[in-house]
Specification:
- The chain is 28% helix and 24% strand.
- By secondary structure, the chain is α+β, with helices and mostly antiparallel strands.
- The strands form 2 sheets. Strands 1, 2, 3, 6, 7, 8, 9, 10, 11, 12 and 13 form an 11-stranded antiparallel β-sheet that branches. A two-stranded antiparallel ribbon has the order 4-5.
- Helix 1 packs across helix 10 (287-297).
- The relative contact order is 0.23.
């Protein structure tokens, strides 16, 4: 079985950093990809930090066509709904996700990676995250209630054996900024109607409001994803880093379309209180394929 990048499933880390890079010139794409691949050794951790890397789908297809999921593409156009709700497209070329027990080691490794890639890629976007009350979103609700178990996640989030890109995954990465004052002005019942779950225990409302977040992103309708969402920000500006892994991009894209009301016109009520600032799709290759690319193909 093709081994994934294990950091995808490394739960319980208390500090996260997401680094998005732009390749300096198209001719440097292969060199940058090989250099990023070399950073993945040893495969699990570097100085106690888990490291996961991904590539703009078009870049990965150009440097490793045999391992490219067919049809995968960058987040190059905003997702716009009929009422004007927009999810912006801020696609970059490379993403590096670092997690560790403390931000000091994550910070040190982040700086080292930026320096290592400096000749081939520039840091375009950096965001640091942290867990909020173990498993809650900054809205106060439990996040990832429908997440599969780790065993199930391996089957749902990874491209199956025998398919191009086996053992890899498609990542959707977004930064969402919350309007907490407006959110906290709602009663608990009002918040529950927006989310579609009870706040205290995350039990789904019955019946669930049609415009609720649960209803608009129903995994029974679109397909399953594995979420690694995390909080970010300061006292004045904060929100959620949405991190969704799926074996197919269509599952993720379908959820985004439904949230903005495309088709049908009904938007996700949660979008009245939180705004997407970024959006990018990345191919996260298997650990095996990435290691082979870094060690063999560029030797």
């Amino acid at each position: 079985m093709t081994a994934p990048q294990t950091g995808i499933f490394a739960l319980g880390t208390s500090s996260h950093a997401w680094l998005e890079f732009d390749v300096i010139a198209p001719a440097s794409a292969a060199d940058a990809a090989a250099l990023v691949a070399s950073l993945r050794e040893p495969r699990t951790t570097i100085d106690g930090v888990n490291l996961v890397v991904g590539f703009r789908p078009e870049i990965w297809a150009s440097v490793a066509p045999d391992a490219a999921p067919p049809g995968a593409h960058g987040f190059d156009q905003p997702v716009t709904g009929p009422t004007g709700k927009v999810m912006p497209a801020t696609q970059h070329d490379i993403v590096v996700w670092l997690t560790g027990s403390g931000y000091d080691v994550v910070f040190d490794v982040s700086r080292a990676i930026v320096a290592a890639l400096a000749a081939h890629a520039t840091l375009a976007h950096e965001i640091v995250g942290w867990p909020y009350h173990h498993d809650r979103d900054l809205t106060g609700f439990i996040d990832g209630t429908e997440n599969p178990s780790l065993i199930e996640a391996m089957a749902l989030a990874l491209i199956p054996e025998g398919e191009p890109g086996a053992g890899g995954s498609i990542l959707l990465l977004q930064q969402w900024e919350h309007d907490i004052p407006s959110w906290e002005a709602l009663s608990t019942e009002g918040q529950e109607a927006v989310i579609g779950r009870r706040k205290i225990d995350s039990v789904e409302l019955d019946p669930r409001p049609e415009g609720s977040h649960v209803a608009r992103t129903d995994q029974d309708a679109f397909g399953d994803i594995f979420r690694r969402n995390i909080a970010y920000g300061s006292v004045t500006t904060h929100g959620t880093i949405f991190v969704g892994f799926s074996a197919t991009q269509a599952v993720l894209a379908g959820m985004l379309d439904n949230m903005v009301g495309r088709p049908g016109g009904l938007i996700d009520d949660l979008m009245r209180f939180t705004t997407p600032l970024t959006g990018g799709y990345y191919v996260v290759p298997s650990g095996d394929r990435l290691a082979a690319f870094g060690s063999d193909e560029r030797a």
